[in-house]
Amino acid sequence: MSTVRSKPPLNPVNTAIFVGLPLAALILVPFWGIYHGYDSFQWLWALAFLYLNGLSITGGYHRLWAHKSYDAHPALKWFYALWGAGALQNSILIWSSDHRRHHRHVDHDDLDPYSASRGLWFSHMGWMLREYQSNDPDFSNARDLQRDPVVMFQHNHYVALTVLMNVGLPLLLGIWHGDIIGTVLVVGLLRLVVNHHVTFFINSLAHYWGSRPYTETNSARDNGFLAFLTYGEGYHNYHHIFQNDYRNGIRWYQWDPTKWMIALCSRVGLASNLSRVPNFKIQRAILDTQFERARRKLERADNSEPLLASLEREYQLFTESVNQWKALQAERYERTVAELEGAIEERKAALLKKWEHAALRTKFKELEYSLKMQRKRVAMLVQQVQLQAA
Ligand SMILES: [Zn+2]
Ligand SMILES: [Zn+2]
C-alpha cells in the first residue's frame, strides 16, 4: 500500500464549513455563555434540532434513499429533505451516491470515498477537505434517485434550503425568544457542529472501534456507545452485511431511535414495505464468522487435529441446515405463487393452507433453533482450544 501520496488542493467551501464553523463555535459559544448566558429554551431547541437533523440523515438520507430499506409517504420525504438540508451534509443525491460507493467498495483506498483504510482522520472528515478524486460526482449508481422529484428539488435548491434551515429558523426562534445572538449560537452553530461530528463518527470510529459479530470481511464494527450518539447507526457491522434492513440495532433493547421512528411511521401510514432480514440469515452470518474465527485459532494451536475434525463436522451440519433452509424458502415461494394463481378457491382449501403454513413456520423455527445450538457448540470448541493453549 502506498504511504506517500501527493495531497490534492484544499476545497475552500468545505474547509470553511468543517474547520471554520467548529473554530467559531469553540470561541463564540463559551464567550457568549460567560458574558450573557443561555437558558433551557435554547438548549431544548438545540436538542430538538439535533434530533430532527440527525434522524433525517439516518432515517431519510441513509436508510430510505441510499439503501431503499422501506418506502415513504411524500409528506415524510419532504420532512426528511428539509431537515436533512439543515444538517449541512450535502444534498440527498450526492450523499446517497457517495454512500452507495462506500458500501460497494468499502475499505478500498481509491474507490471508497471515506475509506477507513486511509486512516481515522481521513474517514472522519479529511476526505471532505481536499479535492480527492474519489469525491468526483458520479450519479451512475443513483439513477433511481434522479427520478425522485423530492430528491431533485432538494438538490437543485440546496443552498437556499440549507440557509433557511440553519440561519432562517434559528433567527426566527431568537426573535421569538428575545435573544437573537444566543439562540443563533446554540441552536444554529453549536447544534450544527455537534451533529456533523456525531454523524462523521459512523464513517470513522464505527470502522475502528467495536466488535464484528456478523462479518470480518470489512472494517465496520458494532458499538453500542456509538449507537447512542449516532441515532442508532453504531451497529455498523450488522449494517454493512445487511444494508437493506431498515434496522441497524436488530435486538429490541439495542438503541436505535431511527428504527423506532420508521416503525412508528409505518403504524400511522407514513412508511411501508419495511425490509427485515430473516432471522435465520442473521444467525447464519454469526455462525459463519464464528467458524472462521475458530478455524484460525485451531490452525495456530498445537495438537488441535481432533478439535479441528469436530469443527469440520459441525460445519458440515451447518451447511446442511443452510441447504434445508434454502429448500424451505423455495417451497414457500412456490406455494405463494400457486396461491396467487388460484386465488378464488373454496374455504376448505384455505384452511388446509393455513395448517401447511403453520407447519412450514415450525420447520423454519426448528432450523433457527438448531443454528442457535450450533453456535453454542462452536463457542465451546473455541473454549477448549483456549484451555488447551493455556
Ligand atoms: Zn461504513
Ligand atoms: Zn449504509
From TrEMBL:
It is found in: Membrane. It comes from Parahaliea aestuarii. This is Acyl-CoA desaturase. It is a multi-pass membrane protein. GO terms for molecular function: oxidoreductase activity, acting on paired donors, with oxidation of a pair of donors resulting in the reduction of molecular oxygen to two molecules of water. Pfam families: FA_desaturase. The chain crosses the membrane at residues 12-32, 44-66, 78-95, 182-202. GO terms for cellular component: membrane. Belongs to the fatty acid desaturase type 2 family. Residues 44-259 form the Fatty acid desaturase domain. It comes from the Bacteria.
